[in-house]
Specification:
Blueprint: E1 2-8, E2 17-23, E3 26-32, H1 45-48, H2 50-55, E4 64-65, E5 68-69, H3 72-90, E6 95-99, H4 110-119, E7 124-125, H5 133-143, E8 150-151, E9 160-164, H6 168-171, H7 182-191, E10 195-199, E11 212-214, H8 221-234, H9 239-245, H10 248-258, H11 263-270, H12 274-287, E12 291-294, H13 296-299, H14 304-317, E13 328-330, H15 334-338, H16 374-379, E14 385-389, H17 393-396, H18 400-409, E15 412-417, H19 422-426, E16 429-432, E17 441-443, E18 452-456, H20 469-479, H21 495-504, H22 510-516, E19 521-522, E20 525-526, H23 529-534, H24 545-554, E21 563-565, E22 572-573, E23 576-577, E24 587-590, H25 591-596, E25 604-609, E26 612-621, E27 628-630, E28 663-666
Parallel strand pairs: 6-7, 6-14, 9-10, 9-12, 10-11, 14-15, 15-16, 21-27, 24-26
Antiparallel strand pairs: 1-2, 2-3, 4-5, 4-16, 8-13, 13-20, 17-18, 18-19, 22-23, 24-27, 25-26, 25-28
Helix pairs in contact: 3-20, 5-14, 8-10, 8-11, 8-14, 10-24
The structure holds ligand MGD (2 copies), iron/sulfur cluster and molybdenum atom.
Pfam families: Molybdop_Fe4S4 (PF04879), Molybdopterin (PF00384), Molydop_binding (PF01568)
GO molecular function, one term: metal ion binding
Domain 4Fe-4S Mo/W bis-MGD-type: 2-58
């Protein structure tokens, strides 16, 4: 029997519409769904490899207790028995959770977060402090609301787009730019007269599609942005927006803080030609409005939170946010736009959140502990059980050796994952869960910039003894005397019922989404509602004191020498290689670095910092900025997190992943 199923590939934020062919219960083929409202048939190599990965031998098929195959009942009883014992001995904070990218966009982590909350544990960790923290902090400081981010659609809004630290034609985008089918949409943007600039030390796939590519010295974007703010405050700003939606004292404070960032200073610090800078400024003045589309590598920089703020500030003063012809904000539901004005703004210096006891020098962020402090909490004996849900802390967090040693010390390491990977092999309790091909997903991420929400059905039933994630967590919860399914019985409820039930609590237009299935429904949006309903007193906090201080201090910081560049590649997603026939990527260096260090293509090199060293084979890329050394993350052996400092940024609680100073040397064959 042959049937076709329309579903969404949820591997990245593009959420492409797919059509699966299922033959006698076997997933044999996927292709892009041409009728899909956003992806229109587009797929990438990762999505096209879904059938092979689904059936491949890397799957986790059976529950495993300390390496031995057991029944689900045995595994769940053992895990919860141990957890109860640890809670009795050390209190609820003995149990920690790390929920991450693997099921981040399908709402799958909500039951786990609910379980931790019901247990009374404050031990919550996630890539929030490895990924988005600078963006959240900047939004919080400027709007009082960490989750309020503008969203760019190439089909509408400003006719000038400047990408900084993002490469959406490879990544599928990020907060504010999560988009399917970016290559075609960028072509359309330019064909309609849109102008695209890409600021990136690498000639990325997006840079290749741009009108202009500027390759700055890594980690210096805040200089470029401060100069743009300086010049636009002088000429090119939107006088109405500045007068009506900003505090005049803030405008003067910003003007004073950016005054030292002259063309000469900025050209010198960024390695960009003065002529290029002048042309960029002229383009902004010509277009009037601009989208400064920042990605992970804007916030990953040493002054990432400053750069994030300055990008917002430039968009505010040019009248590019929440006005006709500008960028829209997407809402989580109709209630957000039509309801009462938002009244829970953070204080002007940002919200405070308690940090972990073992690191009294550090705060938390928005109710979570910094991911880098998980090993501290384990070593101090506070955390003795850890639930890992869709994440790989062995590759995503700085100082992997210390992380590995800490994880090995745990009494209980529950890992819920559809694949049998390094972290499931370390698990005391390995719990095989359904993958994207095997579950119903409610995909609803408007605040991350996804303009449609979807209900994606399973393509085939779960193979092996895999269970739905909600089932696993609800079974753990039930044995601990808790209910995370809002009254539904995990033994008798089916996947579709549970997912719809949990979805209704998350979105007030859930029924519309259900009706649309994998084509979904548009999330409510509009123009002006952010000024009207969300901003504190209807005004942007244009010049947060903590950021002004950081900007001024940045003038004295050194930015010379070789600098690390972070960045993603098409075939893998963080630590998971999804596309077929792929292996460890090279360490990429510039022609200038190759010459200065007498290194050639294929040589083995060592890249080091005070934190450690990473080795790999080199590729010389003539298009790479002179100061750049590009290393992809997510690899166990060639693990770039060996050279990342464990000390996070004070304001964001996130490590600095790009733009740090590195040493380069050739490793000669013995
Ligand atoms: N194929 C693929 N897609 C993915 C992922 C993946 O691993 N692979 N990961 C997913 C995840 S978890 C996320 S968070 C998103 C992230 O999505 P994006 O934020 O778009 O991330 P990248 O594609 O890494 O793009 C970052 C770009 O910034 C550049 N860059 C590095 N340092 C600097 C700098 O100092 N200044 C400037 N201006 N640019 C710099 C890099 O060269 C790179 O091209 O992608 C998601 N999608
Ligand atoms: N040096 C450096 N470090 C970085 C970054 C960087 O650029 N440089 N990027 C940072 C960023 S942006 C992020 S988001 C983090 C990523 O950090 P993590 O999320 O911790 O890492 P991933 O490799 O994405 O882990 C995904 C895991 O989920 C599993 N998985 C896949 N599908 C499913 C599913 O359907 N359900 C469940 N339960 N599990 C699933 C995979 O097998 C894998 O084990 O890393 C951060 N760390
Ligand atoms: S991984 Fe590829 S196919 Fe899947 S959603 Fe992202 S871009 Fe689309
Ligand atoms: Mo991420």
């Amino acid at each position: 029997m042959v049937e076709t199923v329309r579903f969404n590939c949820e591997l990245c934020m593009a959420m492409c519409g797919m059509i699966a062919t299922v033959e006698d219960g076997r997933l044999v083929d996927v292709k892009g769904d041409r009728d899909h409202p956003t992806s229109a048939g587009y797929t990438c190599a990762k999505g096209r490899a879904l059938p092979e990965r689904h059936h491949g031998d890397g799957r986790l098929d059976f529950p495993r207790l300390r390496g031995e195959r057991v029944s689900w009942d045995t595994l769940l009883d053992d895990a919860t028995g141990e957890i109860q014992r640890l809670i009795a001995e050390g209190g609820p904070n003995s149990v920690a959770g790390y929920y991450a990218t693997g099921q981040a966009f399908s709402g799958g982590a909500y039951p786990m977060l609910d379980l931790l909350a019901q247990l009374g544990s404050n031990q919550v960790y996630s890539p929030m402090t490895l990924d988005v923290a600078p963006r959240l902090r900047a939004a919080e400081l400027v709007t009082g609301i960490p989750f309020l981010h503008p969203s760019w659609f190439p089909e509408e809004g400003p006719t000038l787009c400047v990408m900084l630290g993002t490469n959406p034609t490879t990544s599928g985008g990020w907060i504010g730019s999560a988009r399917a089918n970016m290559p075609q949409r960028l072509r359309g943007f330019r064909a309609r007269g849109g102008e695209l600039w890409v600021v990136d030390p690498r000639r990325s796939s997006s840079a290749k599609r741009a009108d202009r590519h500027l390759a700055p010295r890594p980690g210096t974007d805040h200089f470029l942005l401060a100069w743009l703010a300086r010049e636009l405050l002088d000429k090119g700003h939107d006088a109405h927006e500045v007068a009506s939606a900003c505090d005049p004292a803030d405008v003067e404070r910003l003007r004073a803080a950016v005054a030292p960032f002259t063309l000469e200073v900025v050209a010198e610090r960024t390695d960009l030609a003065a002529d290029d800078l002048i042309e960029l400024l002229a383009a902004i003045r010509r277009h009037g409005k601009v989208v400064l589309l920042g990605g992970t590598c804007l916030g990953f920089q040493p002054e990432g939170v400053v750069a994030e703020w300055l990008a917002l500030a430039v968009m505010i003063i040019t009248g590019s946010l929440d006005v006709e012809g500008g960028l829209k904000y997407l809402s989580a539901g109709h209630g957000m736009i039509d309801g009462p004005a938002f009244a829970y703004h953070a204080p002007e210096d940002g919200s405070a959140s308690p940090g972990p006891a073992s690191r009294p020098d550090l705060d938390g962020l928005l109710g979570q502990f910094p991911a880098v402090t998980l090993p501290d909490e384990i070593e101090s004996g506070q955390v003795r059980a850890l639930l890992v849900f869709g994440g790989n802390p062995l590759t995503s967090v700085p100082d992997p050796d210390r992380m590995r040693a800490a994880l090995a010390k745990l009494d209980v390491l529950v890992v819920i994952d559809p694949f049998d990977v390094e972290i499931t092999k370390m698990a005391t309790h390995a719990m095989p869960c359904a993958w994207v091909t095997e579950r119903t997903s409610f995909i609803h991420e408007p605040l991350q910039g996804l303009d449609r929400s979807y209900l994606s059905p399973p393509v085939v039933p779960p193979g092996g003894e895999r269970q739905q994630s909600w089932w696993i967590i609800a079974q753990l919860a039930r044995r601990l005397g808790k209910d995370v399914l809002d009254g539904l019985d995990p033994d008798t409820s089916d996947d579709d019922t549970v997912v719809r039930h949990l979805a209704r609590a998350r979105a007030d237009f859930a029924e519309e989404v259900f009706a649309g299935g994998s084509h979904g429904a548009a999330v409510p949006t509009g123009i002006g509602w952010v000024h009207e309903k969300m901003l504190p007193g209807g005004r942007w906090r244009l010049a947060p004191r903590v950021l002004l201080d950081r900007l001024t201090a940045a003038l004295d910081q050194e930015s010379g020498g070789l600098r690390l560049v972070a960045g993603r590649r098409m075939n893998s997603l963080n630590s998971r290689v999804y596309a077929l026939e792929d292996g460890t990527p090279p360490i990429v260096i510039s022609a200038a670095a190759a010459r200065d260090h007498a290194i050639s293509n294929g040589d083995r090199v060592r890249v080091s910092t005070a934190s450690g060293a990473v080795e790999g084979l080199v590729e010389v890329d003539a298009a790479l900025g002179d100061a750049a050394v590009y290393i992809n993350h997510g690899w166990l052996e060639q693990n770039v997190n060996r050279i990342i400092d464990r000390m996070p940024d004070r304001l964001t609680l996130q490590p600095v992943f790009t733009g740090i100073s590195v040493q380069l040397e050739r490793v000669d064959a013995q």
